[in-house]
Design brief:
Layout: H1 7-26, E1 33-41, E2 54-60, E3 67-73, H2 87-94, E4 100-104, H3 116-130, E5 137-147, H4 149-159, E6 181-185, H5 194-197, H6 212-217, H7 225-230, E7 244-249, H8 258-269, E8 274-279, H9 286-289, E9 299-304, E10 307-312, H10 319-329, E11 336-345, E12 348-357, E13 363-364, E14 367-371, E15 377-382, E16 385-389, E17 392-396, E18 403-404, E19 409-417, E20 428-430, E21 433-434, E22 436-439
């Protein structure tokens, strides 16, 4: 256990590291967004003039609609009311993948103690869902991502979708605050065990009255265990939670790696769904846990339906890996095959399109898009809701065929006219991902 007389020095180091992290996020390339809407008030400021009830929304150019939404909150040891900072860097990655991104701020621990921060994030989620149609968001595909205390907030929101006592009265009432997936980086999960899990060489004194955790809950954590229990994400885990992917470096000096071990074990024991990527040598920061120099050294623990598996060296913690996880967790599909066959007559044809889900997770609601290389004009379609604008076509499920299970397929048909060439579409995309193409 770290000596208390070093608390102030370590806290200073914590804040310096967090400030460096925030700067690196802010200075990242701008988001590839069609529209950026800044400083949306999802609830009145509290206290007046503060920024804890603001969000920024990054809407992608193009892609399918309604869009899946990824909510981001930057960690600060609960010391900042501007957690939406850093979302531009996340949007720079995920807007290009078809996701809308919302950077959300919540109140700092100096402005309000727990559970205010959970009340705030739930209010933001409710506001975003209530306004989903305004921004072409898919209210059934909301995910959240955060690092450090932002990861804690992600886990609290992911695990407490049905906990009425944590809804609070902030902002928009009467709308679900549930998430469909979470992705957390190096998060605290059980405050009372943090000191015992510190690295042998030392670490932050989490038991100090002025530690970030104590300031969050309003008391030195070892003196108020019942209050702390309510702030521990691990205590809300059950088998009905949405899936969670979380990462932790084994050399984390600020939040012990053992915190994620505790969480994984609890999710597995509860028959929940989770993936835990453990990275040797990585400290506290996304640049550390996502460092390509460490690719292949990680261990990945996956638990589904009470059964756990362990993989060594795969998958690498990259943005593409996170996209694949989110697409699977949100039931958008991770890989697909489209078989396209036609029967042609003079200036016309009928087409059969078979979509096969080649991924391991189900697809719930789909949009298949393609572009014609010739002058094909669709005149009729069945088993789909279809629109054509110029050469671009979007075929949506017809309701009864919305779900495509893993290794399962569905099909629909079209009738069209053409002049000149009737060449098959060069590619098909299902919910935004490129499918393997088979010509019948």
């Amino acid at each position: 256990m770290h000596a208390r007389n070093r608390t102030a020095a370590i806290l200073g180091m914590v804040m310096a590291m967090l400030a460096t992290l925030v700067v690196s996020l802010v200075l990242s390339p701008p988001a590839r967004a069609d529209q950026v809407i800044s400083d949306i008030a999802y609830a009145p400021a509290q206290p007046a003039g503060s920024r804890g009830h603001l969000l920024d929304l990054y809407l992608p150019a193009g892609g399918i609609t309604p869009r899946p939404l990824l909510i981001w909150h930057s960690g600060s040891a609960w010391s900042s009311d501007d957690g939406k900072n850093g979302a531009a860097a996340i949007a720079a990655v995920f807007n290009a993948k078809g996701f809308a991104v919302a950077g959300v701020s919540v109140r700092s621990s100096s402005q309000a103690i727990f559970p205010a921060q959970v009340h705030d994030i739930k209010a933001a989620i409710r506001w975003l869902r209530a306004h989903a149609a305004d921004y072409q968001l898919d209210p059934n595909r909301f995910a959240m991502m955060g690092d450090s205390s932002g990861g804690w907030l992600t886990e609290m929101a992911t695990f407490t979708g049905g906990v009425a006592a944590l809804e609070g009265t902030v902002g928009t009432p009467g709308v679900s605050s549930a998430l469909q997936a979470g992705l957390a980086f190096y998060s605290p999960t059980d405050f009372l065990q943090m000191n015992a899990q510190n690295l042998p060489g030392g670490g932050l004194d989490h038991n100090s009255p002025v530690s970030p955790e104590s300031l969050l809950v309003g008391c030195a954590i070892q003196t108020c265990p019942s209050t702390v229990a309510l702030a521990n994400p691990v205590n809300y885990v059950d088998g009905n939670d949405p899936p969670l992917l979380f990462l932790h470096g084994q050399a984390d000096f600020l939040v012990p790696h053992g915190q994620s071990v505790l969480l994984y074990n609890k999710i597995k024991a509860s028959c929940g769904n989770a993936q835990f990527i453990s990275i040797p040598g990585a400290d506290h920061g996304k640049a550390d846990v996502m460092d390509p120099a460490r690719f292949g050294t990680q261990t990945t623990y996956t638990t589904t339906n009470c059964y756990g598996t362990t993989q060594f060296g795969t998958p690498n913690p990259t943005w593409d890996t996170f996209e694949q996880y989110l697409r699977g967790a949100l039931k958008m599909g991770t890989s697909c095959q489209v078989t396209y066959a036609t029967t042609t007559w003079s200036n016309g044809f009928t087409g059969s399109v078979t979509i096969r889900n080649t991924g391991t997770t189900p697809i719930d609601r789909w949009v298949l898009t393609w572009g014609w290389p010739g002058n094909q004009q669709i005149t009729a379609a069945w088993n789909t809701t279809l629109t054509q604008t110029g050469a671009q076509v979007s075929a949506r499920d017809a309701g009864h065929n919305a779900v495509i299970g893993a290794s399962s397929s569905t099909n629909f048909g079209i009738e069209a006219t053409y002049s000149g060439t009737n060449t098959a579409p060069p590619e098909f995309r299902l919910n935004g991902i490129l499918c393997a193409r088979v010509l019948g």
